[in-house]
Specification:
heterodimer; A: mainly alpha; two-stranded antiparallel sheet; 4 helices; about 75% helix; B: mainly alpha; 9 helices
Chain lengths: ~100, ~200
C-alpha cells in the first residue's frame, strides 16, 4: 500500500468521524434528530457485534466465535469483571480451535 | 456523578484499553504480513484509528487486492463512525480545536461507553477516558505486533478475533432488551440474504 493511499484512507476516516463533533459542532440540532441518532447508535453497535461474530468474508458462518460469545454473554449476565469476560471469550475460541 | 462512578468508569476504560491493545498486537502482525512496512502499520493505527476498517484494509491487501480495493470497504465500515459522531454531539463539548481532536476518538468502544451512562457529563468522562486508554493501547499493541511480526502465532488461533465483539458487548448490555432484539434482527437479515443469494 502506498503512503498516498494510506493518507487517503486516514483523511476519509477522519472526515467521517468529524461530521458530528466538527461540522455540526455546537449548532443546535432538532431534538427529535438527536434522540433518533442516540437510539440508532445502539442497534448499530449490536449489529456490529453480530457481524463480527458471524461474518466471514460475506458469509454467515458459525464457528468458534459463537460459543465464545455465548460464554461472554453468560459472564456478563453473572456480572463478571470486564477483562474476565473478554479473555474468557478469546480463551474459549482458542481452545475450541485447538481441539478442532 | 460521584467519585465512585468515576473510578468504576476509569477502571472499565483501562480494561477496554488492555483488551484493545491485545488485538492491536494481532493487527500489527497481520498488517506487516500483508506487506505494509512497520512505519505504515504504525501510521495507520495512529491516523485511521478505527479497528474494523484497518483489519478490513489489510485483509484485502493480504489477499493480493489493490489499494483502491482495500480503501473502499474500509471507508464503508468507517461510515458508522459518522453516525456515532452525530449521536455524540451533545457529549463532545469544548472549543473547535478540542472537538477536532476528540473526533479522532469517535469509535465503537468510546460510543458504547458514552451511551452506557445516564447523563452528558458522565458520558463525556467515559468517552474521554476510554478514548485515551484505547488510543494509547491500540497504538502500543500495533507497534509491538508489527515488530514481532510473523514470529507470533496466528491471531485466530489465540481467539483474538472473538475479543472485539466481546469488548463491545459488555457496555452494550447496559441497554438490555433492545440490544438483543436488534442483534437478532441482524442475524435474521444475514440468514435472509443467504437464502436470497443461495
Amino acid at each position: 500500500m502506498s503512503w498516498t493511499a494510506l493518507l487517503l484512507l486516514a483523511a476519509g476516516s477522519y472526515a467521517l468521524k468529524a461530521v458530528g463533533p466538527v461540522v455540526v459542532g455546537r449548532r443546535p440540532m432538532p431534538a427529535g434528530a438527536i434522540e433518533v441518532l442516540e437510539l440508532l447508535s445502539i442497534p448499530v453497535l449490536a449489529g456490529l457485534v453480530a457481524v463480527q461474530t458471524l461474518n466471514s468474508g460475506g458469509e454467515l458462518v458459525v464457528d468458534a466465535r459463537v460459543p465464545a460469545m455465548a460464554v461472554a454473554g453468560v459472564l456478563v449476565w453473572r456480572r463478571a469483571p470486564f477483562l474476565v469476560v473478554v479473555f474468557a471469550a478469546a480463551g474459549t475460541a482458542a481452545l475450541l480451535r485447538l481441539l478442532a | 456523578m460521584t467519585g465512585a462512578d468515576h473510578r468504576k468508569i476509569a477502571r472499565t476504560a483501562a480494561a477496554i484499553g488492555i483488551a484493545t491493545g491485545t488485538y492491536g498486537i494481532s493487527f500489527g502482525v497481520l498488517s506487516v504480513a500483508a506487506g505494509l512496512t512497520l512505519a505504515q502499520t504504525c501510521a495507520m493505527s495512529l491516523l485511521v484509528f478505527t479497528g474494523a476498517s484497518q483489519f478490513a484494509a489489510v485483509g484485502v491487501l493480504g489477499a493480493g487486492g489493490s489499494a483502491a480495493a482495500a480503501i473502499a470497504p474500509a471507508l464503508l465500515l468507517a461510515g458508522r463512525n459518522a453516525l456515532y459522531g452525530l449521536s455524540l454531539v451533545g457529549v463532545l463539548r469544548g472549543r473547535p480545536a478540542s472537538r477536532a481532536a476528540q473526533a479522532q476518538l469517535v469509535i465503537d468502544e468510546t460510543t458504547a461507553m458514552a451511551r452506557a451512562q445516564d447523563d452528558a457529563a458522565t458520558a463525556r468522562f467515559a468517552f474521554l477516558t476510554t478514548g485515551i486508554s484505547v488510543f494509547v493501547c491500540w497504538n502500543a499493541g500495533t507497534a509491538l505486533g508489527a515488530v514481532a511480526g510473523r514470529g507470533l502465532a496466528n491471531p485466530a488461533a489465540l481467539g483474538l478475533d472473538a475479543m472485539f465483539p466481546a469488548t463491545v458487548l459488555v457496555p452494550l448490555t447496559a441497554a438490555g432488551v433492545p440490544i438483543l432484539a436488534s442483534a437478532l434482527g441482524v442475524v435474521a437479515g444475514l440468514v435472509a440474504r443467504r437464502r436470497a443469494s443461495g
